[in-house]
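Hey, I'm writing a tutorial for new members on how sequence and structure tokens pair up, and I'd like a real worked example in the thread rather than a made-up one. If someone can provide the structure for the chain below, I'll link this post from the tutorial.
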Amino acid sequence: MITAQALATCLMLAAHNYGVPPAVMIGIMHVEGGRVGQQIGPNGNGTYDLGPMQVNTHWIPMLARAWRVDPRTAHALVRDDGCINVRVAAWILRDKIDEAGSLYGGIAHYHSATPRHGYPYAAKVIKAMERKGLIRHDQGYAQVPKRYYYAQR
């Protein structure tokens, strides 16, 4: 079993490696509410969500090919290894940010590319970040009202 401190270290390293804000990763983790070894589903499309970041099994075939392992092994690694789970999540988030062209869009697309599903999810992540004190709203900049700033603690 991985400790919370070890998982936090893995999350910070993964965020750094993929150039995504750790605060966003923490927000996603809190919204997803998963834990190491957990598998939730099936979803409407027959997939499952795995581990702390609830990585969708849609990614398993691609990961298995990239890692040169069978899909069962990739599935177990993503579900049961917290460090691998947060690393895969950071990789997915980086891909979705690049695809969407914005951080907010990337957060939405992490959950779903369908706007009616993705954008409410992104709003939940932002709210989770606010509750955790990871966002501050600076009112001092008139040209950028209510802009979100992400704390890099």
